Each structure stands twice: as C-alpha cells, then as structure tokens.
C-alpha cells in the first residue's frame, strides 16, 4: 500500500495475495503471506484470530509489525498510513520524541506499577482539571467500557433513575446495558449473551436526530439517569434537554474531550450553548 494513498480491498480471496484499489489508480496485488500465516496461528489460540471484533476483517487482517511516524508496517513489509492511532492513544505518532521516550524509561526504571496511590497520578489529575474546566475530579480507568460502566452507575446512583439513552450505531462500551439496538419503542440486545432485561432501561435514538431525542425526553425525561451521546454533534441539544431534566451526560468511551480541544469539548459546546457546562460531564 502506497504511503500516500488510502486504499480499500476490491475483492476478497482465500489466497494470501489480496487485490487493492487506490482511488484513481489501477488494481494491484499486495503480498500478505506472513499475515495469513500469523492469522492461521492465531485462530488456534485467539477466538476469531483477533483480540477485538473491530480488528477482524475478511478474509484476514494485516498483522502489524512496527510503527514509523504516521505509518504502520505489517509482517510482509507493506506500509500503511495509520488513521487508527491505536483507537485514540497514539497522539504523537509512532516515532516518539526523545523526551517522551526518556520520561517513559525513567518511570519504568522506578517500577512498572505498584497497585497503590502515587504522586504522578495526582499530578496528572491536577493537570487535567486545570486545563478542562468542566472536570472537577478524575477517576482513572483502563478502558472505555470501564469508564461508561462507572459513569452510568454513578448517574443512576445520583439521580435515583434507571434509564440510559444511547446513540444508535455508536460504541458506548461492552457492558450489557449499552449493547442494545432498536429505538425508544422497541429495543433488544445487539448480540447473544445479553439478557433481554437489560433493554428495558436502555433507549437507543438515531444519531443527529434532534426530534427523536426531544421525543424521548418528553416521554421519559423523569426516568433518564444519563445520556451517552458518543459524538460532539449531539452534545448541544442533549445538554439543553438534560439540564432541564436533571440528568448527566458523558462523552464517547475512548475519546476524551481534550482531544477535541485543549480545554475539552465542553469549551466549544459552551460557546455555542451556555448551558452545556452546567450539566455533569462524567468521564
């Protein structure tokens, strides 16, 4: 894959030579022999050959060997532009500045982890609250699922309400209460293994549909504990409605608001709608 082209597969085959088409160019073949071999090995020890469904692709994914700046290179030496960025955390690319590497090495030399409070976590929390006015306190977690689980539980405990509003087609964590699809009239689990009872307190609404969100609040406003909008575009109307209904809202798991702007999403939201900052911003 050329380092300056966005390419997509044109066909899928059972061979290790997959054909790709770059916009404005002719189809060409890419060697993925090593990725195919690694995938075959992975199938015997990893369910589906991957550690996350989002990494699965048919007939098999490219196995990445290393990163280089804004690119990743697979086991066969093919180079790709990295639009994924580790699903968020790789903010500086794959060639870290020397001072970042030095800071990591310095911290590791003091011990990889302690399982106890440390000064560095206090410093990080102070940094976040100093730069993001809407965040008064921080709870660090390991994943977006843990963040949304804690946020929903906190919102339910604080409000005494049970219902949660989520955006259709968005990712709101892998807990049962957000693995729900449908609409406000008929919701059901999105996959086997999720008891149907969880759908009773989860209300999916179409993304970017203000009328649908308003209808949900008209019908269930006094029962809604939290809204998980997932994207910045929904925060303005939700902030207004939620402030009126007395519920909390939360940003997308794995995509903290400070990646939108240094002071967080709420900075820009409050410029458009002043009420956005008055509601709880649970991350």
TrEMBL record:
Matching InterPro entries, A to Z? Answer: Aminotrans_3, PyrdxlP-dep_Trfase, PyrdxlP-dep_Trfase_major, PyrdxlP-dep_Trfase_small
Q: Which reaction does it catalyse?
A: (S)-4-amino-5-oxopentanoate = 5-aminolevulinate
**TM region(s), chain numbering:** none
UniProt-annotated stretches for the region Disordered:
246-283
Q: Which Gene3D superfamilies match?
A: Aspartate Aminotransferase, domain 1, Type I PLP-dependent aspartate aminotransferase-like (Major domain)
Names of the cofactor(s):
pyridoxal 5'-phosphate
Alphabetic keyword roster: Aminotransferase, Isomerase, Pyridoxal phosphate, Transferase
Q: Which GO terms describe its molecular function?
A: glutamate-1-semialdehyde 2,1-aminomutase activity; pyridoxal phosphate binding; transaminase activity
Tell me the domain of life.
Archaea
Q: Which Pfam families match?
A: Aminotran_3
Matching SUPFAM superfamilies: PLP-dependent transferases (SSF53383)
Q: Which residues form a coiled coil?
A: none
PANTHER family, alphabetized: GLUTAMATE-1-SEMIALDEHYDE 2,1-AMINOMUTASE, GLUTAMATE-1-SEMIALDEHYDE 2,1-AMINOMUTASE 1, CHLOROPLASTIC-RELATED
The name this protein carries in UniProt is Glutamate-1-semialdehyde 2,1-aminomutase
């Amino acid at each position: 894959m050329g380092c300056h082209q966005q390419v997509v597969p044109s066909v899928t085959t059972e061979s290790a030579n997959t054909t790709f088409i770059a916009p404005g160019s002719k189809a060409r073949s890419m060697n993925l022999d090593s990725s195919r071999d690694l995938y075959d090995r992975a199938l015997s020890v990893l369910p589906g050959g991957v550690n996350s469904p989002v990494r699965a692709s048919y007939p098999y994914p490219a196995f990445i060997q290393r990163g280089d700046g804004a690119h990743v290179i697979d086991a066969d030496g093919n180079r790709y532009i990295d639009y994924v960025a580790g699903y968020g955390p790789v903010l500086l690319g794959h060639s870290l500045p020397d001072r970042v590497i030095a800071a990591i090495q310095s911290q590791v030399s003091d011990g990889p982890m302690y399982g106890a409070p440390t000064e560095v976590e206090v410093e990080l929390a102070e940094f976040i609250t100093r730069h993001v006015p809407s965040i008064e306190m921080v709870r660090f977690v390991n994943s977006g699922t843990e963040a949304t689980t804690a946020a929903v539980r906190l919102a339910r405990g604080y409000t005494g309400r049970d219902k949660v509003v989520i955006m259709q087609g968005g990712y709101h964590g892998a807990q049962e209460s957000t693995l729900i699809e449908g609409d406000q009239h008929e919701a059901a689990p999105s996959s086997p293994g999720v008891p149907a009872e969880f759908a009773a307190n989860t209300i999916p609404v179409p993304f970017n549909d203000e009328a649908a969100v308003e209808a949900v609040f008209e019908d269930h406003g006094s029962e809604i504990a939290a809204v998980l909008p997932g994207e910045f575009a929904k925060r303005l109307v939700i902030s207004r409605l939620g402030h009126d209904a007395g519920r909390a809202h939360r940003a997308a798991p794995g995509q903290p608001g400070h990646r939108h702007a240094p002071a967080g999403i709420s900075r820009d939201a409050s410029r458009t709608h002043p009420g956005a900052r008055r509601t709880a911003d649970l991350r």
